[in-house]
Amino acid sequence: MSAGPKILVVDDEEVICRGVQRILSGKGFEVVTSTDSPAALRLAVAEDFAAVLLDLKMPRMDGIQFVQELRKAKPTVPVIFVTGYPSLLEAESAERFGVLGHILKPFTPQEIVEAVQRCLRVSSPAVPSVEGGGLPLNEPKGEGPVGRSSAHDGAADREIRQGV
User: Which of 39, 15, 59 is nearest to 159 (CA)?
Assistant: First the structure.
């Protein structure tokens, strides 16, 4: 059996990486994770990923810097920001570099799966220009939160660690 589309998840919080990996691999995706953004960038350039889920606020290299560098080598790979700290400046930068949208932390399993599926649908065969600054990738619905950044309470983090 062949693996599904290969997704790169980059977040400085291991618990978020593991949670997203568990969610997406359970839906048939092949998932590679990294908590080190410069190492993840090298990986993203060297390998072919169907999409990249990327945290905005990370040490050493933030999400905007990551996308700027990624676009030099891989101008069409779909990117979705995953963040607990959305801002207008970041939204403008994201649009400028062709980021398809963002998912707000905390997110539900349904939101992350639907966002990736939507991203893959609209990005085949190449990333289109999306009017209005990207897709609305997570809307509140369904199950409770699965991933939260350290700025949020740790209930969802505990769920992921316990394998719930």
Answer: 15
